[in-house]
Amino acid sequence: MTTQEKILSFLDGLLERDGIKLRRGIGIGLYLFNQLRDTLPDYMLESLQSFDRMPFEKKKAIVLELKRILSRSEVKEEKPQVRKRPIKDFLVELDKLKGLDSKEKKVLKSLGINTLLDALFYFPLRYEDRRPITSLKLAKPGQKVVLKLKVKDVRKSPEEGYTVEVLCTDGKEYIKLKFRYKRSDFIYALYRRGSEVVVAGKVKSFKGEKYMVHPELLKEEEFGGIFPVYYIRAKGEITRISSRERHNRIRKALKKLVKTARFLPEYLPEFIRKKYGFPYADESIEKIHLPEGLDIKELNDMETPYHKRAIYDDLFLFQLSLLLKKKEAQQEKAPPIGVSPDRFVIEFENKLPFRLTNAQRKALREVLSDMRKESPMNRLLQGDVGSGKTVVAIGASLAVVREGYQVAVMVPTEILAQQHYKKFKEFFQKEGIEVGLLTGSLKPSEKKSAYKHIREGNIKIVVGTHALIQEKVEFKNLGLVVIDEQHRFGVMQRKLLLEKGKGLYPHCLVMSATPIPRTLALSIYGDLDISVIDELPPGRKEVRTLLLFESERDKLLKAIEEEVSKGNKVYIIYPLIEESEKAEFKAATEEFERWKELLPDKRILLLHGRMSDEEKQRVMEEFKEKGDILVSTTVVEVGVDVPEATLMIVEDAHRFGLSQLHQLRGRVGRSDRPSYCYLVVPDSLRKTDADAIRRLKVLVQTTDGFKVAEMDLKFRGPGELLGVSQSGYFGFNIANLARSRDRFVLQNAREDARELLERDPKLKEHEELKELLLYRYGDRLDLSYIA
User: Fold this and answer.
1) Could you tell me if residue 512 is left (phi over 0), alpha (psi between -120 and 50 degrees) or otherwise beta?
2) pTM for this structure?
3) What is the side-by-side strand order in the sheet with 507-512?
């Protein structure tokens, strides 16, 4: 039975019993499209792409037409086979490409497009339907449309000063194009009476009269189909060119380059491509850039088969790279830490002045179980603010030091380094174990001494910033690396520290105080196992959060007076360091002076990011010892521990992300004292930004960091959650983990990547996939071992 005969039989089945299968079936159009893509005429392929959303009668008509075509063998000849080129041929630099002029090359480079492959994978953000409407009857108010019109008259508006009205017609109805300029002579030149024009804009209506305000006059090459819209925030001198001209150059250049996509080899394993019925890579890239004949809604929802394929590819390549990284680490030899997890946890807890939570005990047991093996632990310890992750790290460090190995604790800032150093020293000096500090601000003599004692093994635990990864730092026998706030360090920085193990690969414990939903954590930290501390230590009171408007500022002053009178401390946070002409929101430096005037009897201090590390440390110490109020930018966001702080005020709170606000809120409520967080926003926000109010109310309603992170992911995407861009951090071209659909695809991609590596551990049978993977992630994740 030939493929053609099978399809005819399938079509007959769809029409049986009054078409019940056709009425209820899902994905029929996609199935037929993939089966017949190389044989059907284009007009039928286009119908099949929107088939699954059609009403029953239309579906039935297409099925009958398909039967007619197939039974009469009115099929077109199979597309001639194009000789594919290896992926490495697509790594040619733009400068070496023929067919592009210097202006086009310049605009592509300004967007970070350096090779032909970069260009092919530089996908549109969205699409615009620029097929002109010739009848004004079809142009509904509120719609953004392209109109083909004839100019009847150009005149100054009698009612509105500086406004020029261009009266246009489609031959039956009229529409006014309104332009408001002090000097409007050029409008008369552009819109001459009797001339035909094509304009794009939003149709409005007043008293039944249609009009457009400042529509765009389109050139011939700017209309006549579905147009891709690309991200155009360029760098360098190219920014002097108008965004419209940039768009035109990008479109023109990519249209030329996309023709080469047909030579691109298929890199996705065939068992995966067939599993999902994906189109081939070459066709997907071509159709995403040149989407003629596709449904505009499907395009903008990224629901076409081509977009689904590209989204999957993004996620699959990333997961594959993370699993390869994990596999590489598992092949290394690590020092086995031979303690009994259960016995050790009991013994460790007896040394503490407080009881561990069940979640802390579980996490510590998981860490100790990992470290018993000869393969290195790579574990992420996630926990909400104040959940007690540091104590778990101290317990793990004790186990490692007892076995004769050293521990390195790397944190992102000097303030955190000082704080961790104090916590570790407080515990370990009772055990007679030496703890050292290594940061960039130490005097040369202090650094020299630290290097010597680390090298000789006298310092058993060293806490530091990125200064730990410098070449001069040598360990005698490094057994454990603890990295706090992982997303602030690149993978390569983590690797440099892990390579200081001298023959043995140290165990690695990564800690993050940014709660991340599990699906996203798997994506970001897919090379790590995950432990979660999901309960707070007993005695901790929930921080009560309130949303305040500027007009309620008297409540703020009352709250500050009340907390300070009880001997408590207050944070006041601002989003900027100094007043900017562009942004009119408050800045810490200017408001600091205002607070001093408002509360002259209070000890008010200032902290911001432009201070040196020594200054920041001095201010924090002074605030802890004798300060009342700390006016600051977000440098207090992570890890700063002042138990007496009970009031957090965040000015212009709508300028921050939810997860960032949750981190700031976590700076108070670090004792058994009742604590509060006031989110202050302008009154105008009630009218201008209801979404911002809705977003901030999430914090009023919950103190659960994981719920906050889930909502932040929904509102702003994972890039904001982590403080990074998705394309930059993940290497994504089109996938977006803010979309729940893409997070679902992510899980499938992870399973598929795992299955592929079981079949082909070093991708020796998938050379093109390996080449693409190394190009995207080889340097970023150091995948040199599979090259």
Assistant:
1) beta
2) 0.74
3) 435-438, 461-464, 406-410, 478-484, 507-512, 378-383, 529-533
